[in-house]
């Protein structure tokens, strides 16, 4: 599903003549197979978010290759990558990233509008997802009227609405208490088992890493299979 080959990344800070280079990832190769849940762990600042941002094209890779579902996405133009992302990858963020002026229903509906889906189809799809994440009674609530766990359920439903085969998640339970975290992890496991969705999940949290079939640790810019004590 994801294949990363010899990927390196460094940030450049400052202006010409006074440039500072911050090397983050060094010659990384990794694979995530269809149907897997893989967690990415590592110290703060080790490059986990950078890896996810490179895979999703929010940061463009300059060295190395990124393949998603057999497509060499690292060679895509910005516009082509944006289209690919919308159709093929769902995202879940620690801070939910919902639009505050839209209801739960409207937040989930938005990607369908962007894709040009008609209203009757949108209604069926959004209501099905609201049922799946247990929020049908909250469909007209705005994000500020929902708990953290409920907001994360809305964002999971939004990530699912275009039926992606892959979901990338950056600390999906980072802002939630342990009970709510367990509910969200249950939803992720069900989606993986019932729909075969592949998950790559960045986490600091052992409970989250435990639902993964595999863990990958980033240390000193390199990857290691398994969880290192960090
Ligand atoms: N846009 C940027 N410009 C310059 N340096 C950056 C930029 N983004 C990240 N970095 C640096 O790259 C390194 C890796 O950051 P990254 O956010 O990928 O780490 P992380 O493992 O996700 O950390 P955390 O667990 O704290 O979220 C850090 O040293 C960070 O300061």
Automatic annotation (TrEMBL):
CDD domains documented for this protein: ABC_MJ0796_LolCDE_FtsE (cd03255)
GO function term, MF aspect, one: ATP binding
Pfam family, one: ABC_tran
Protein's name according to its UniProt entry: ABC transporter ATP-binding protein
Any one GO CC term of the record: membrane protein complex
Keywords: ATP-binding, Nucleotide-binding, Transport
Family in the record: Belongs to the ABC transporter superfamily.
Top-level taxon: Bacteria
Span of domain ABC transporter: 2-230
Keyword ATP-binding attached: yes
Naturally occurring in which organism (per UniProt): Ornithinibacillus hominis
